[in-house]
């Protein structure tokens, strides 16, 4: 299997994930979102809950190629490069949380966003930490030990949740990670989407999320070692099915839950990622169906940049006022997309429009051979 074929499958997988992120993050109205495009209220897993772990899995896939270069470097140089990349992605995430630095207050005045309530964690900070920890584990301990360490992380996390949780350790109130985040980060720096200070990308739940990256790396190594043949494809399919089955069994005692990133959730999402990757590899590498995949390939070539720009543009929408109680985001939905499709279809059209908008950005960059790597 040629490098171009390998990278095409990875680009498409990453591209699907980035397009999914933009789709689920930008409905025209959060009051009108189709159920599959919403996160599970607590336990359970919707298609939307697959998007973030898929991205971490794709990070691991890409690492199976890039880490080869690190092996040729001395430990000091490799660690420096890993930590530098980790810090840069983390800071970009914090920057995006703070952007656009101003907000409208209750009196309709534009005021500076105080750092005292800046959210520290989030999607990009978690990606950074998961990448950094996984890269260090793989660099120093290799593939086999990384697999063992991943298993240990899942079991240790389960023990920590049980040992330090209060009441129902799998509930929001009893989850041990909530107390850790309040103590380490402070309530004022946590996400408030649940109505209370709680960060779904908190410190403790980052431990099992590291495993999504490690398993993605191991899948990439497996594909390279086995090469383009049907036994390799069968191995991915069987492993994916076994992981999903194991996760569903574990779910009976350790519920699948994205917001606290349970160990069963890790196995479940990795299993489905393997199944999806198998389908993509069969379609692209084995059958040569590259044209239908071209749309998502564009997203996969500049995934981090396109994701960041999608956040920047939407945050600017919220800053631009079109009326006393209306911003540009709401105006676009109410005056363009809702009249076209109604409530739910209009909200979906709004999201699809932005998927197309950022695809266009990626397409222009690809045509000009602009690829931004962090």
TrEMBL record:
The chain crosses the membrane at residues 12-30, 50-67, 87-106, 118-140, 147-165, 202-223, 230-253, 265-284, 304-324, 344-364. PANTHER family: LD22376P. It comes from Chitinophaga rupis. Pfam families: HGSNAT_cat. Residues 6-151 form the Heparan-alpha-glucosaminide N-acetyltransferase catalytic domain. InterPro entries: HGSNAT_cat. The keyword Transmembrane applies. This is Predicted acyltransferase. The keyword Membrane applies. Keywords: Acyltransferase, Membrane, Transferase, Transmembrane, Transmembrane helix. GO terms for molecular function: acyltransferase activity.
């Amino acid at each position: 299997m040629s490098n171009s074929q390998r990278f095409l499958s990875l680009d498409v997988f990453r591209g699907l994930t980035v397009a999914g992120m933009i789709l689920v993050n930008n409905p025209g109205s959060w009051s009108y979102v189709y159920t599959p495009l919403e996160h599970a209220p607590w336990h359970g897993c919707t298609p939307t809950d697959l998007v973030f772990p898929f991205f971490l899995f794709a990070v691991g896939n890409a690492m199976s190629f890039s880490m080869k270069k690190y092996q040729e470097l001395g430990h000091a140089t490799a660690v420096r490069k890993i930590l530098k990349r980790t810090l840069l992605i983390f800071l970009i995430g914090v920057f995006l949380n703070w952007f656009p630095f101003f907000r409208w207050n209750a009196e309709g005045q534009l005021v500076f966003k105080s750092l005292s309530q800046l959210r520290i964690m989030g999607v990009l900070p978690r990606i950074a930490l998961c990448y950094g920890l996984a890269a260090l584990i793989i660099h120093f301990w290799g593939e086999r030990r990384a697999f063992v360490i991943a298993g240990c992380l899942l079991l240790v996390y389960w023990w920590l949740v049980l040992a330090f949780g209060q009441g129902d350790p799998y509930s929001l109130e009893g989850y041990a990670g909530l107390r850790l985040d309040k103590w380490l980060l402070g309530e004022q720096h946590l996400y408030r989407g649940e109505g209370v200070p709680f960060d779904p990308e908190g410190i403790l739940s980052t431990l099992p999320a590291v495993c999504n990256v490690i398993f993605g790396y191991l899948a990439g190594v497996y594909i390279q070692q086995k090469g383009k043949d049907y036994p390799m494809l069968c191995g991915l399919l069987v492993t994916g099915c076994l992981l999903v089955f194991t996760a569903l069994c574990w779910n009976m005692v350790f519920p699948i839950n994205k917001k606290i990133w349970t160990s069963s959730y890790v196995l479940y999402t990795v299993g489905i990622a393997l199944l999806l990757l198998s389908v993509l590899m069969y379609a692209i590498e084995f059958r040569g169906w590259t044209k239908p995949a071209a749309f998502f390939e564009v997203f996969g070539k500049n995934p981090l940049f396109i994701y960041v720009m999608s956040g920047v543009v939407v945050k600017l929408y919220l800053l631009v006022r079109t009326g006393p109680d209306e911003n540009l985001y709401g105006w676009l939905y109410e005056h363009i997309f809702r009249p076209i499709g109604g409530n739910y279809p209009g909200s979906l059209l709004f999201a699809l429009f932005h998927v197309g908008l950022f695809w266009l950005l990626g397409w222009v960059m690809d045509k000009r051979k602009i690829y931004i790597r962090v």
